[in-house]
Write a structure and sequence with these properties.
By secondary structure, the protein is α+β, with helices and mostly antiparallel strands. It has helices at 20-32, 38-51, 56-73, 76-92, 96-110, 116-132, 136-152, 156-172, 176-192, 196-213, 216-233, 236-252, 256-273, 276-292, 296-313, 316-372, 375-393, 403-418, 422-442, 450-468, 495-506, 546-567; strands at 448-449, 472-478, 487-489, 513-522, 525-532, 572-578, 581-589, 591-592. It has 22 helices and eight strands. The strands form two sheets. A five-stranded mixed beta sheet has the order 2-4-5-7-6. The chain has a three-stranded antiparallel beta sheet with strand order 1-3-8.
C-alpha cells in the first residue's frame, strides 16, 4: 500500500498548485518560447511536474523532450533534473524498478555538480521506494539526510517534505504519536509557504494516523479536508487514496452502502490515473464490504481482483530486480573508490623513487662542485643536474607532492651552488632532505598523528617561504580540545590546498600574503580550515585560477572521499570565496589512537 511519501517526491520544482490553469499557462509559455535553450528545458519539466499526478503518460512525453534537448545542449544539470522527473513518473505508475534506475542515474550525472540539496532530494525519492518495500531503516536514513541538509540551507519546502515522509514511516511502524507530532509540526510550515500540495498530503497522513488510533471522527475531518484540497488541485490519484481510506472507516461504522460508493469512486479514479496499488486497495475494500453484506460471490470476485493487481504491482521478481539494481550501483561506487586508492598508492611510489634519486644526485653533485671549485666543472655538473631534473619530472608528475615544487626546490639549490652560496644551499638541502625523509616515513601509512602531519606541512611551508623570500606569512592553530598526538589524519591531505594558496592565491598579489590554518573538531568530525588573503578564484589577466587547481583538488577530493568511506562516516571539502582570498574547509571523520 502506498504511503504519504508517494505524494511528496521532490521534482523539478515543488509547485504549490496544479490543475488545468497551471497546465494552460505552461502550454502558452512553451508556445511562446520555441528557442532550444535551458529555459525551454525548465518549462518542459515544469509541465511534466504539473501533469504527473493525473496524466503520467503525457508527462513522460514532455520529460523525453527535455532529455533530448539537454543532450543536444550538453546541459548536465538539466539532464539530472529530467532523470529525477522521469523517475517520479515511473514511481507514480507503480514501476519502482525503472524509478529506482532513473534516480540512481540522476545521482551519477549530478555527482560533479556537488549540489547537496539536489542529491538529498534524490535520496528522498529513493527512500520512498524503500518505504513502500517496508525497508524502513534505509528509508529513515535517507529522509533524515534530506532533513539535515534542508535545515542547514534554510529550505522550508524540503524541511516539510522530510518531516512528512519521516512521519509516514513512523505511522507504518505503528509509532503513531511520533508520526502525528511530526505532521502537526509540518502543517503550519506548509501553510506558511502557501503549498497546498504539501498541506493536502499532511491532512491525508493525519487522517491515516488518527484512523489507526481509533479516532474515526477526527480522521474523517482530516480526510475531508484533504479531499477538498485534492479536488482544487485536480489530483485524482490523491482523491482515490483518500476515498478508499474513508471507505475503510465507513465499514467500521457499518455504513456499507456509502462505503461501497466511496470505494467504487476510488477504483474509477485509480484506473483513470493507472495507479495499480490504489486499484488493489479499492478492490480489497470492496471485498470486505461485500463480505459484510453477505454477498459471497461478489466478495470473492473483488478479492481475486485485489490479489491479481497487487501481485502485478510489486511482486517478488521486482523486489529482486530492485535489490540487484541497488547492489550494482553500490559496486560501481566501490570500484571507483578502489581505483582512486590504487592511483594514489602508485603516485606515492613514484614520488618516493623520484625524490630519493633526485636528492641523492643533488648531494653528490653539490659535494663535487664544492671540492673542485672550478668554473668549468661547476657549469658541467650544473647542466647535468638540470638535465636530471627534467628527466625525472615526468616520473614525479603523479606524485602527491606537486612536481613543480620538487623541480623548483632543486633548482634553488643548484642556483645557490652555482653562485657559490654553499651555506644557503646546505641549509635549503637540509630542510629538503628532512621533508623527504618525513614523507618516506609516512607514505605507507593511511593515517598518522596530527602532530606529525602538521610537522611535515610546516616543513613544506617553510621551504616555500625560503624559496619565495618572505612573500607570505603563515600561522597554524590547533583547538585546545584536540590532542595532536592522539588524533589520526590522512598524511599530507592539506598540501595541495596550501600549494594552491601560495601559487595561485598569494603569488599573484603585489604585497605580502598570509595563510591561516586552523584545526577544530565538532562531534565525531575533524575540520581543517585553510584561509588565505590572496586573489581568490576571481579572473586574473583574463583567466580564472580554477583550471590550474584542478589536478591537486581532484586528488584531494578523492582522498577525502576515501577517508569517509573507510570509516563509514561523512567527509567533505567546501570552498568559500572571501572578499579577499579563499577559504577551504575539509571535513574528516575524527579518528583517535586510543
Amino acid at each position: 500500500m502506498k504511503q504519504l511519501a508517494t505524494y511528496i517526491c521532490i521534482t523539478m520544482a515543488c509547485l504549490p498548485a496544479s490543475g488545468q490553469t497551471l497546465v494552460d499557462s505552461l502550454k502558452n509559455k512553451l508556445a511562446n518560447h520555441s528557442s532550444a535553450d535551458t529555459i525551454r528545458v525548465s518549462l518542459l519539466l515544469d509541465m511534466a511536474d504539473a501533469l504527473v499526478w493525473n496524466s503520467p503518460q503525457e508527462a513522460l512525453t514532455y520529460v523525453n523532450q527535455a532529455t533530448q534537448l539537454t543532450d543536444e545542449l550538453g546541459w548536465q544539470r538539466g539532464k539530472a533534473y529530467a532523470l529525477r522527473q522521469e523517475g517520479l513518473i515511473y514511481y507514480e505508475q507503480s514501476d519502482p524498478v525503472r524509478a529506482m534506475d532513473r534516480f540512481h542515474e540522476a545521482l551519477k550525472v549530478a555527482e560533479p555538480m556537488q549540489d547537496r540539496s539536489f542529491e538529498a532530494s534524490l535520496y528522498n525519492n529513493i527512500a520512498n521506494i524503500y518505504s513502500d518495500l517496508k525497508h524502513y531503516d534505509k528509508a529513515l536514513d535517507h529522509y533524515n539526510r534530506l532533513l539535515t541538509v534542508s535545515k542547514e540551507l534554510h529550505d522550508t519546502a524540503q524541511t516539510v517534505i522530510a518531516s512528512v515522509n519521516i512521519a509516514s514511516v513512523y505511522i507504518e511502524q505503528q509509532q503513531l504519536s511520533l508520526g502525528i507530532a511530526n505532521l502537526t509540526e509540518a502543517l503550519p510550515l506548509a501553510r506558511s509557504i502557501g503549498n497546498q500540495r504539501f498541506e493536502m498530503a499532511i491532512e491525508n497522513n493525519l487522517g491515516r494516523a488518527l484512523a489507526k488510533q481509533g479516532d474515526d471522527e477526527l480522521a474523517l475531518e482530516h480526510f475531508n479536508t484533504c479531499l477538498h484540497l485534492a479536488g482544487q488541485l485536480g489530483s485524482d490519484g490523491i482523491k482515490a487514496n483518500v476515498l478508499n481510506s474513508i471507505g475503510e472507516i465507513l465499514i467500521n461504522r457499518r455504513q456499507y452502502a456509502e462505503a461501497e460508493s466511496r470505494s467504487k469512486e476510488a477504483l474509477a479514479l485509480a484506473e483513470k490515473v493507472g495507479a495499480l496499488e490504489w486499484q488493489a486497495n479499492a478492490w480489497q475494500t470492496l471485498s470486505k464490504i461485500h463480505e459484510r453484506q453477505n454477498r459471497p460471490s461478489e466478495a470473492l470476485h473483488a478479492y481475486k481482483q485485489f490479489i491479481t493487481i497487487r501481485d502485478s504491482a510489486l511482486n517478488d521478481e521486482k523486489k529482486t530486480e530492485i535489490a540487484r539494481n541497488e547492489m550494482q550501483f553500490a559496486l560501481e561506487k566501490q570500484e571507483a573508490v578502489a581505483a582512486s586508492e590504487m592511483s594514489r598508492q602508485r603516485a606515492i611510489t613514484y614520488a618516493i623513487i623520484g625524490v630519493a634519486l633526485i636528492t641523492m644526485i643533488a648531494i653528490v653533485l653539490g659535494w663535487r662542485l664544492y671540492k673542485r671549485k672550478r668554473d668549468s666543472d661547476e657549469q658541467k655538473k650544473l647542466s647535468e643536474f638540470e638535465a636530471l631534473v627534467a628527466d625525472t619530472e615526468m616520473k614525479a608528475l603523479r606524485a602527491q607532492m606537486n612536481p613543480h615544487f620538487i623541480f623548483n626546490s632543486l633548482n634553488a639549490i643548484g642556483n645557490s651552488i652555482a653562485q657559490k652560496d654553499f651555506a644557503t644551499a646546505a641549509e635549503y638541502l637540509n630542510h629538503f632532505a628532512k621533508l623527504v625523509r618525513q614523507i618516506l616515513e609516512h607514505s605507507e601509512s593511511k593515517e598518522i598523528p596530527l602532530a606529525a602531519d602538521l610537522a611535515v606541512l610546516k616543513g613544506y611551508i617553510q621551504l616555500e617561504a625560503m624559496r619565495l623570500k618572505g612573500k607570505f606569512t603563515y600561522a597554524i592553530d590547533v583547538a585546545g580540545d584536540i590532542d595532536p598526538e592522539n588524533t589520526l589524519v590522512p598524511p599530507l591531505i592539506l598540501q595541495p590546498l596550501i600549494e594552491n594558496s601560495i601559487w595561485h592565491g598569494i603569488l599573484p598579489k603585489k604585497d605580502t600574503g598570509h595563510i591561516g590554518i586552523r584545526v577544530q573538531k565538532d562531534g565525531d568530525s575533524l575540520y581543517y580550515i585553510v584561509e588565505d588573503n590572496g586573489v581568490g578564484r576571481a579572473p586574473v589577466n583574463g583567466q580564472t585560477n580554477t583550471s590550474k587547481r584542478s589536478m591537486g583538488i581532484a586528488l584531494t577530493k578523492a582522498r577525502i572521499a576515501i577517508a569517509g568511506t573507510h570509516q563509514n562516516k561523512s567527509s567533505a571539502i567546501l570552498f568559500d570565496d572571501l572578499p579577499n582570498g579563499l577559504a577551504v574547509t575539509v571535513k574528516l571523520p575524527l579518528s583517535l589512537q586510543f
